[in-house]
UniProtKB/TrEMBL annotation:
<dbReference type="InterPro" id="IPR050566">
    <property type="entry name" value="Deoxyribonucleoside_kinase"/>
</dbReference>
<dbReference type="Pfam" id="PF01712">
    <property type="entry name" value="dNK"/>
</dbReference>
<feature type="domain" description="Deoxynucleoside kinase">
    <location>
        <begin position="7"/>
        <end position="206"/>
    </location>
</feature>
<dbReference type="GO" id="GO:0019136">
    <property type="term" value="F:deoxynucleoside kinase activity"/>
</dbReference>
<dbReference type="GO" id="GO:0005737">
    <property type="term" value="C:cytoplasm"/>
</dbReference>
<feature type="binding site">
    <location>
        <begin position="138"/>
        <end position="142"/>
    </location>
    <ligand>
        <name>ATP</name>
    </ligand>
</feature>
<keyword id="KW-0808">Transferase</keyword>
<keyword id="KW-0067">ATP-binding</keyword>
<dbReference type="InterPro" id="IPR002624">
    <property type="entry name" value="DCK/DGK"/>
</dbReference>
<protein>
    <submittedName>
        <fullName>Deoxynucleoside kinase</fullName>
    </submittedName>
</protein>
<dbReference type="InterPro" id="IPR027417">
    <property type="entry name" value="P-loop_NTPase"/>
</dbReference>
<keyword id="KW-0547">Nucleotide-binding</keyword>
<feature type="binding site">
    <location>
        <begin position="11"/>
        <end position="19"/>
    </location>
    <ligand>
        <name>ATP</name>
    </ligand>
</feature>
<feature type="active site" description="Proton acceptor">
    <location>
        <position position="86"/>
    </location>
</feature>
<comment type="similarity">
    <text>Belongs to the DCK/DGK family.</text>
</comment>
<keyword id="KW-0418">Kinase</keyword>
<dbReference type="GO" id="GO:0005524">
    <property type="term" value="F:ATP binding"/>
</dbReference>
Length: 207
């Protein structure tokens, strides 16, 4: 590798981000950064009542991801080592803009920028895009109890929000390569050839 790369795997809930990240980390011999999800104590309450628990939920995620990426700078990026993560810190704005309202959203935006503006940004994003039926199938398969409460309309809106966010990042972060993966057609878990194609494309970007 000519330089240290920071790879982020992104996509809406159920896209397979962590699975693909883990597989690629093993294939490429890279350290992996995984976001904390189930450890968030507000998740179950959030899916039952989004308005009451959205700020607590989003702040927990933001602070934990900030800490993870701050450590990543010290441990990997600043030492010239490539690393792969199953999220981009920008996802906090994707979710925050959707779940927060009024002054809480304004406060969250301010805190987000204070914490993240000087963090390293991925120079490679693997964006797994899938339609609602595909995401629902994968969510049901992994069987997280708190996700059973999720509104399908919320998930559909996230799909659209992610499309908009990736289009925005393509403009605001022009040095970042965004590799789109069709999650409806590519089953990188069950089909080794599909995974091999994705891994091959990533290897090309790293050379």
């Amino acid at each position: 590798m000519k330089h240290a790369s920071f790879i982020a795997v992104e996509g809406p809930i159920g896209a397979g981000k962590t699975t693909l990240t883990t597989m690629l980390a093993a294939e490429l011999g890279l350290p992996v950064i995984k976001e904390i999800v189930e450890e968030n104590p507000f998740l179950g309450k959030f899916y039952q009542n989004m308005d009451d628990w959205s700020f607590q939920l989003e702040m927990f995620f933001l602070c934990n991801r900030y800490k993870q990426l701050e450590d990543t700078v010290l441990e990997y990026i600043d030492k010239g080592k490539a690393v792969i993560s199953d999220y981009h810190i920008y996802k906090n704005l994707i979710f925050g803009e959707r779940t927060l309202k009024g002054t809480k959203r304004d406060k969250y935006r301010e805190i987000y920028h204070v914490l993240t503006d000087d963090l390293p940004k991925p120079n490679i994003i693997l964006y797994i895009r899938a339609d609602l039926d595909t995401l629902l199938t994968r969510i049901a398969k992994r069987g997280r109890s708190f996700e059973a409460e999720m509104d399908n309309a919320y998930l559909q809106q996230l799909i659209e929000d992610y499309d908009s966010a990736m289009a925005s990042l393509a403009v605001t972060e022009p040095n970042t390569v965004i590799l789109a993966i069709d999650g409806n057609q590519f089953d990188f878990v069950e089909n080794p050839q599909h995974f091999a194609e994705i891994a091959s494309q990533v290897k090309e970007l790293l050379t």
